[in-house]
Amino acid sequence: MNSENPAEGGAAAGTEPQADTELSYEQARDELTDVVRRLEAGGLTLQESLALWERGERLAKTCEEWLEGARAKLAATMAAEDSGQGEEDPATPF
């Protein structure tokens, strides 16, 4: 194993491939899946494992923020639709 930081996709220590806030949900999820796979495979030093764990925590937070944002948008859309229920078109089934 090389001395590069495994928590950052093999990038040199102190650099990240992309800031967590710039990752899409899918990018963060896919990287998190890779982090988990690497941790489960074992064979890492304690330092490497801790760095991967910390990266995984940040990625999980990014995913949670995306999901919370999606839930908030869905709730706002549903609330807006509910507030207009009195003016519904009778031809519309919902």
Give me the secondary-structure category.
mainly alpha
Note the main sheet: none
- The total count of helices amounts to 2
Q: Note the beta-strand portion.
A: under 5%
The rounded Rg comes to: 21 Å
Terminal CA distance reads 59 Å
Rough shape?
rod-shaped
Mean pLDDT: 80
What is the string of helix and strand elements? HH
Q: Helix fraction?
A: 55-70%
| Total E-strand runs | 0
Low-confidence stretches: 1-17
Q: In short, what is this structure?
A:
By secondary structure, the chain is mainly alpha-helical. It has helices at residues 25-41, 46-83.
Give an account of the 3D structure:
This protein is mostly helical and 94 residues long. Helices cover 59% and strands 0% of the residues. The chain has 2 helices and no strands. Helix 1 (25-41) runs antiparallel to helix 2. It is rod-shaped. The termini are far apart.
